[in-house]
Each structure stands twice: as structure tokens, then as C-alpha cells.
Amino acid sequence: MSNDLPDPVLETAHNHAKDYLDGLATRHVGSQHGRDELFAKLHSPLAAHGEDPSAVIDLLASQAEVGMTSCSSPRYFGFVIGGTQPVALAADWLVSTWDQNAGIHAISPFSAVVEEVAVEWMLDLFDLPRESSVGFVTGGQMANFTCLAAARHNVLRRVGWDVELDGLAGAPRVNIVVSAGAHVTIDVALRYLGFGTRSLQIVDADDQGRMRAESLRDLMTTLDGPTIICAQAGNVNSGSFDPLREIAVIAHEADAWLHVDGAFGLWARASMSLSELADGIELADSWSTDAHKWLNVPYDSGVAIVKHSADHRAAMRSSASYLIQTQGAERDSIDWVPELSRRARAIPIYATLRALGRDGVEKLINRGCARARQMADLLGAEKGVQILNDVVLNQALVRFGDDDETTRAVVSGVQDEGTCWASGTIWNGQAAMRVSVTNWATSEEDISQSATAILRVYQSLQTR
Prior knowledge:
Helix content: 40-55%
CATH architecture of the largest domain: 3-Layer(aba) Sandwich
CATH topology of the largest domain: Aspartate Aminotransferase, domain 2
Family: Belongs to the group II decarboxylase family.
Strand order of the largest sheet: 1-7-6-5-4-2-3
Organism: Rhodoglobus aureus
Radius of gyration: 23 Å
Largest sheet: 7 strands, mixed
Number of domains: 3
CATH superfamily of the largest domain: Type I PLP-dependent aspartate aminotransferase-like (Major domain)
InterPro entries: Aromatic_deC, PyrdxlP-dep_de-COase, PyrdxlP-dep_Trfase, PyrdxlP-dep_Trfase_major, PyrdxlP-dep_Trfase_small
Strand content: 5-15%
Number of helices: 15
GO molecular function: transaminase activity
Cofactor: pyridoxal 5'-phosphate
């Protein structure tokens, strides 16, 4: 066996990474090759003998250049996807280098302690109950799953049913209440947890996607038994917030568990000027968020926060004779998440929070919102262009020519043109372009350049 270190292939990867980052600000944002072209370049029968590792990395990098969307570009505005802070990327490189399984303290005391400190900082930053427990999961989907698993345990425990031991067959019926504007990850999490979606109790939402508190109150008078209410901080289309304080009061009166999906909206709590949007959110029982979206750390980086740590642990914890699990103050991450084998994903969060500080996070959030308002102002000033939502956060919904076909053509044309990238959606029954400004590097010039390109595509359609 050779004792040579794999320096050449690491150097090759480093050079490709540097080239990508150096050109990120000016590169074509959308992908330029599709499935067939990429498959032709990347596919071959699995060889009997391996290839040179550096050549493999060269091949991957060459096809990534033309086959991927530059989601970390400062002019990428699709799907509420943030970029990556340099300090977070550097920390994540080390996470892969150290190759720690962060499942239990005995494997990696370092990872466990970093996670413990990151928990403290996040609860402080969001001003949530300090006794809350936190799990670092893959993304918003698993954050919602984890929180709702804790909710399921809690509401059934309180009526004498142990769902972890006895399952759902024969259990008391649990009422699940969601908003008509809820994100799809809520539905998926509920399916994973065995509730299904056919029997969900759906509350009306207003024209900004906010749950109507009065409709929730009326619904609650018709329900009896264990109940979980799912509210939202940051509608995925409009950025709007449910009336969280009113909803919390209704939930408490009904002795229901209140979960808040705050995938990106929870970060408003880090801004003095925006925190009012999330007024009352601290009264909930659980919260989900995604650090990739607005803290701008690499994938994957969801966060599940639960006020009632005993219920959280009971829903997640697993144990076995071959595991070395702590009985002391040490943190075993397996107690708070669905996975045992997992990346030390709290390390980039720790690094970013430490590098930015409270002021830096606040500026990051405020800057994204300012750039979203700038985009809405520039596009909305053009004849025939409508801004469909109140731009309260980092989301802007844009309609062109008051026409579905025209709007979809603009979205497609912008993606092909490559100056920026925005996604399409349906909002209140109408086609719209969805612009999400979530990248730390997006500047006023990026918005100006992008708005000009979007309007150029729209104007070209008008002259046909």
C-alpha cells in the first residue's frame, strides 16, 4: 500500500474551487447544458481499472461549469436559496477534512461542544426560550419533521398514549391544523409521521398568504382532543407572517401545540427593524429554520428548535448497547435529530455566527430585504409590470403584462439569458415571477443589472 498523501488531487480540487469562486460574480447564472449533453460526457461503463483521480476531478469540474445553476451567485434569486459566506465555506471544507461523525459525544467531543455553543448563540439571537433544545438536521424538511415528531409525542403523552412504544394504530385522534398558505414541507413531514394529509384541518389565508386568526378561532371551537397547529413565519412566495401572537393565544386557550415554520422568516428575529413581523413567535412550542437560507452556510443546515426538551428527546432518542452515550452534561446529538451518522453541520454555523456577531447577522438580514425592495421598485416602475405582494421581507412577486403566458415567457427568458435567475410560481391563481434575495453578496449593482436584464426580456416580448 502506498504511503503517498493525495496532495495532487486535493490541489486540483482547490484550483477548480478557486476558479469557480473567482468567476462567480460574472458567470452565466443558469445552466447551459441539459440532461442529454451531460449524460453523454459523464456516462461510461464502470471500468475494471480506476482512472487518475485528478482527471476525474477535472471531468466533474468541466461539466459543472455548464451543467449547474450557480445558486451561490449574487444574482441568483430562485427558491429562497442563499449563498455561502466565505468563513462558512472554509469551515465546511474543514468539516469534510476532519470527517467527524457528530452523532455522539464519545466519537467527537469537539463537534459536540461546538454544537452546544451554537445552540446557545442561536437561542440568544432569535430570543427564544433558553430552555429550548435544538437539533441540527439536513434542512427545513427535516426540521419540520423533528419538531412535529416532538409535538406528536407531547399531545399524545398528555392523553396517556406513548406513540414511540405503541405507534399510531389505536391512538387517540390528533387534530392537525394548517394554513392554506403552508409550505409543502409541512404536508410531507405530516405524511412521514403517519398522519396523512386527507384529514388536515385547513384554515383560510388572506391575499398575502397569512393565516386568518378569526378563521382559526372558529375552527378550534369545533375540535376536541389532542391538537397541533402549524403556523408560518415567512410565506415562501410573499414573505408574509401569520399573526403569530393571536394564533399563540388561541393555541394556548385550546391547550394545543403550536409549531412555527420559520425556514427563512425566523431570521427576522435577528433584526431590530424586522422583529415586529414575528411578534409573538416566542410563545410557540417549536420552531424550524434553515441556516443555509439566510445565514448563508453550505448545505445541509436545517435547525429544529423545541421548547419542551423532554418531548423532543423522547421523540428522537435512540440507544443501543454498542453505543457509548453520555449520562452527564455532554451533548449527544443523536438525542435531538433523526440521524446517528451525520456531518458536524453545526461547525459552519458556529464559525459564521462568531465571525459576523449579532450586528453582522442583523446587517445581513436587513441588506437582503433592502435589495428585495429595490428590485420591486425598479421592476414595478415599468409599464405593464405589477408587484403582487407587500414586500415586507426578502420576497417579491412580479407579474408581466397581466398575463400568465407573458409572465412565464419572461421567467423562461430570464433563466436562458443568464444575467440572473428567478423562478416562477402561482400566486392567488395567477402566474408570477418569484424573486428571493437571500445571498450575502447581492449588491445594489447586482439588483440594478438584474432588473435591467429582466425588463429587457419583457420588452423584447412586447415587440414581437
